[in-house]
Amino acid sequence: ALPKRLIDYRPYPFTLKSVGLDFTLDPDATEVRARLAFSPREAVAALHLDGEELELVSIALDGRELASGEYQLSKTGLTLPADILPARDFTLETVTRIAPSKNTALEGLYMSNGMYCTQCEAEGFRKITFYPDRPDVMARFHVTITGDQPVLLSNGDLVANRDGYAEWVDPWPKPAYLFALVAGDLRAHSGTFTTMSGREVATNIWVRPGDEDRCDFALQALHRSMRWDEEVYGREYDLDIFNIVAVDDFNMGAMENKGLNIFNSKWVLASPETATDADYERIEGIIAHEYFHNWTGNRITCRDWFQLCLKEGLTVYRDQQFTGDMRGHATKRIDDVLALRGRQFREDRGPLSHPPRPDHYREINNFYTATVYEKGAEIVGMLHRLLGPDGYRAALDLYFERHDGQACTIEDWLKVFEDSSGRDLSQFKRWYTDAGTPTLRVRDSFKDGVYTLEFEQETRPTPGQEEKPLRHIPIEVGLLNENGDEVVPSTVLEMTEARQSFTFDGLATRPVPSILRDFSAPVRLERDADTSELAFLLTHDRDPFNRWEAGRALAQKMLIGRVLGQEGDRSFSDAMGALLRDESADPAFRALCLNLPSEDSIAQALYDQGETPDPAAIHEAREALARDLATAHKTLLAEIFTKTEATAPYSSDPEQAGPRALRLAVLRLLNRIDGGARAGALFASAENMTESFGALAALVQTGQDASAMAEFRDRWQGDRLVMDKWFLVQLANCPPEMALERAETLTGDPLFTWKTPNRFRALMAGLSGNHAGFHRADGASYRFYADWLLKLDPVNPQVAARMSTAFETWTRYDEGRREKMRSELERIAAQPGLSRDLSEMTQRLLG
Ligand code: HT7
Ligand code: ZN
After folding, report:
1. Percent of the chain clearing pLDDT 70 (strictly above)
2. Which letter does DSSP use for residue 375 in this model?
3. Which of 268, 406, 596, 817 is the most buried (most CB within 10 A)?
4. Among 121, 305, 363, which residue has the most ligand 1 atoms within 8 Å of its CB, making it the best to mutate?
5. Does the domain made of 4-185 have the CATH classification 2.60.40.1730?
6. Residue 1 pLDDT more than 80?
7. Where along the chain do the CATH 1.25.50.10 domains lie?
8. Do 265 and 248 form a contact (C-beta atoms < 8 A)?
9. Superfamily for 717-847?
10. What is the per-residue pLDDT across 446-462, written as a single tens digit (0 to 9) for each?
């Protein structure tokens, strides 16, 4: 199929005044009666409705049954020619039949553990009924559900409910991708929330029987999110009920359907015994994210799918702010930058690089990417930094006032910022339209009390974009004197030229610069800072992000030096020693500093420097550095390990989670020299999943984990979420030479229910997350992985396509590995009947 292009956008020629949907549920033959009330916007236009894999039972125009010659039915939809349509308002009524029990792709209406549920974003609604399935067609929905399930849910407010029948009316016009239906034997964990204007909202978390006692954290997180959106953005919830449903079979994390969010159960259910601190934080963040979509995504939606980052970038930015407010801004920023570099920079450096607002695609499901989400959020953060807090809030107020109820574009969004601030953002817009991560090179000089920072920006060509016009880059900078005092406080420099100098005068001595504070722009900063300067910043910088960044740069220097066979020095080890002794520093922050860069990020750094990464050498170097660090500080580390032992009952609050994170970071180091003794003891005594799983992960690293793994499996085999962890950790963390063999064995485990996305992802991400194990020189892991993608593709193309990104770095490596990955990709591409999803991915990966 030809790609869809942004420039081909045309408004839909009809408005849809109302939608009535009647569902009669049946696993093999659900009947959907749809009444669509249209009003023509253009004099003469054919009516096209999207529809896929639907059986059309009947069709009537204004009550008149149509004969088969009066319309055209194709694999992609239904068209009524202009000449049979009245020039006034009309109603089209169709009856279609679908088979939810046969829907393994989990798009449209499907079944999970006997429960009906839907996933309509991006283009799933067309698998439910014939409809203009595009986000700029917004309508009010009235839904009835007939079925023998005890709980029948849809969007909006419940207006009728009796045995086997429910009726839902959503007063807010919405695009079809926000439609949802759930039916099943579900239990609610319920609460109420009083909005800022005093309205009572019923809040429910719906789960399978038996899971009710793992919902309260999610419910409280929802209430915190609702309050936060009122306080920080002035946004109030707009229905009388807010439902969240947890399902086990789900292609992504969660979905923001109006008033009826559907979640992967992994991101709802939590108890101290089964969820880690990281899970708790993530659950809170995802609950917030989906809730925040109610305004940024639902009330104001996207005109077309090219504008996806309009809702996703903004909503990610909002959930990042929220988590920062709940749990601490410094550590949240570091986590977000780690994720951005680990996923988005990686994506941007390879064949899948694309702009946050792409201008063409074949399969939109392939564009729910780190670039759209995480880079999209960075762009919103840059706007916030450029305009300041008041300017940002004024722009957002105007956005909600001007565009409520509309389907918008990035142009609309930027215009709001321009109008409210009076600034010209035409150069800034390139962050949305251009792909690639700019490199920012810095040089400095000092003469007669004047300090000069000279910046140079460059962006490499990316697929389809050879020319790279200059970006508008906010660079937050502070200057420190030799005592560590801030002589120039944080200021935002705005770079718009290819080369640009900024001067600071009246300085007594040459300052130490702290550049790109708080990671003020998603760029790669290149600066030749020596190790003493980095150690100085790690100790003195007021900006916590740059303190951490200095430590990271030291670690990276050390690791790259080792891989390249250079002599190391003690600077990193000394700096970490100082940090370990600094009890005034936040434990969570110290934990982040102690975590060594991942093997994948070391490979990326080497590649960026023009070197060919050797996965085995990288693994060795990282292990050796961890061992050396542990040996150099073993007494101090052991003291911290003892001191951070919790005495209070478990809570996932940052006050407890921080020291726990430090304790586990310390454990991972000591584990390298104590033969797993501490990890074994902790595994035996742990009373919460954070420590139990942390200890297990450490044991896996030694390769001596067989009995712990068996014990863990015995205890948790009945718990699908904990078992996903079990599948993942034993592959991601094991010695690389064991990874493939373990993966092969695990695929034979009766608990490897590979059609369940969470389970498939756990195993495959475990293998691909073991950098040296996945990139074995003989290419055997590549073959195994590709075989499984091919097996999954006919069942669930979305997940297969998404998982193919394990190959996105193939151009980084040596000839041998490149050839092997290329030939696996070619083998996939040549598979007869390959899905559009996986076919687009392999073609883009091959370039
Ligand atoms: N907006 C939601 C995206 C989503 C999705 C997309 C494609 C296929 C399945 C999906 N499930 C959810 C989630 C979000 O960003 O909030
Ligand atoms: Zn989202």
Report:
1. 100
2. I
3. 268
4. 121
5. yes
6. no
7. 717-847
8. yes
9. Peptidase M1, alanyl aminopeptidase, C-terminal domain (1.25.50.10)
10. 999 999 999 999 999 99
Fold of 333-345+363-526: Immunoglobulin-like (2.60.40)
Measure 756 CA to ligand 1 centroid, in angstroms: 17
CA of 312 to the centre of ligand 1 (A): 9
Q: Among 121, 290, 363, 374, which one carries the catalytic annotation? A: 290
Q: Where in the chain is the domain with CATH 2.60.40.1730?
A: 4-185
Average pLDDT over every residue of 419-433: 98
Ligand 1 pocket (Cβ < 6 Å) reads 119, 121-122, 251-252, 254-256, 289-290, 293, 312, 365, 368, 798
Tell me the CA–centroid distance for residue 443 and ligand 2, in Å.
39
CA distances from 807 to 117, 371, 388, 436, 613 (A): 32, 17, 40, 18, 15
For residue 122, whether the previous peptide bond is cis, meaning omega lies within 30 degrees of 0, is yes
Query: Which bound ligand lies closest to the C-alpha atom of 107?
Result: 1
Burial 619-650 (b: 16+ CB within 10 A, else e): bebbeebbebbbebbeeebeebbeebeeeeeb
3-state secondary structure (DSSP) of residue 93: strand
If pLDDT is split at 50, 70 and 90, which confidence band does 43 have? confident
If you take atom 5 of ligand 1, which residue's CA is the nearest one? 121
- For the question of an ipTM over 0.90, the answer is yes
Whether 290 sits among the annotated catalytic residues: the reply is yes
Q: Calculate mean pLDDT across residues 111-134.
A: 98
Encoded amino acid at 673, one letter: I
Domain with CATH 2.60.40.1840 in the chain: 333-345+363-526
Q: Which atom of ligand 1 is nearest to the CA of 289?
A: 16
Counted residue by residue, the chain has a size of 847
Element at 398 (helix H, strand E):
helix 376-403
The residue whose CA has the least distance to atom 12 of ligand 1 is 255
User: Which residues contact residue 447 at a Cβ distance below 8 angstroms, ignoring those fewer than 6 apart?
Assistant: none
What's the sign of the alpha-carbon dihedral 384, 386, 390, 393?
negative
Q: Which ligand is nearest to the CA of 255?
A: 1
